[in-house]
Amino acid sequence: MSWTSAQLLDAFLSTTSDQIIPLTAKGVASGSKVFGAAILRKSDLSVVVVATNHETSSPLLHGEINCIQQFYALPADQRPLPKECIFFATHEPCSLCLSGITWSGFDNHYFLFTYEDTRDAFNIPHDIKILEEVFKVPTPSETPEAFAKRPLYNKSNAFWIARSVADLVNDLEGGEKNTMEKRVKEIREEYNGLSGVYQGGKGSKGIPLA
Ligand SMILES: [Zn+2]
After folding, report:
1. Does residue 127 fall inside a structural domain?
2. Which helix (H) or strand (E) holds 91?
3. The CATH number of the domain where 123 resides is what?
4. Residue-range definition of the domain harbouring residue 36
5. 196 lies in a domain?
6. Which residues 6+ apart lie within 8 Å of 10 measured at CB?
7. Which biological processes are named by the entry's GO terms (predicted)?
8. How far is the CA of 186 from the centre of ligand 1 (A)?
9. Measured in angstroms, how far is the CA atom of residue 14 from the centroid of ligand 1?
10. What does each of the 210 residues of the chain score in pLDDT, given as a tens digit?
């Protein structure tokens, strides 16, 4: 089944509003970060599992990793194959989560907020910093300008294709595009509030990269 960008957006934004944000509100109240994820069936866009960041338990329990763990905790005969699923993350997956999605067998992922949003609007700079510091190796032949412009990871590769919600919105036109832009803006405002709660208590829960 091949879905239109509007259908995918409707599923992602509804899942975010109805399921991920309420869970995130509980998570940030206990000191975890604002990141969430969902796994949906390609066949009908129904939600298989939703999860959020749980770094107060372990710094590896990012929203995406927690979601993958819960997906694989389902009995094998009750869960679809990863190739039969769509992976959605509220925030562009970090290096840990990009690898987690890859190792788990998903052939796609979509995200709402970009790394730059996470750094600038959410005041969490680690995604970009880890990719630049750990993975981005300068080559002697490259100018500093070319190095700075080199993408931090490959959004279309042998394992998966990644697309942002903004990419999907840009597929639309006219009133349909305006409606989706408005929905995204409303969700962004809700996240501003959740981010304020997290930032207000940041540093008090022993998370190594808070
Ligand atoms: Zn992550």
Report:
1. yes
2. strand 85-91
3. 3.40.140.10
4. 5-201
5. yes
6. none
7. nucleobase-containing compound metabolic process
8. 24
9. 22
10. 699 999 999 999 999 999 999 999 999 999 999 999 999 999 999 999 999 999 999 999 999 999 999 999 999 999 999 999 999 999 999 999 999 999 999 999 999 999 999 999 999 999 999 999 999 998 999 999 999 999 999 999 999 999 999 999 999 999 999 999 999 999 999 999 999 999 999 888 889 999
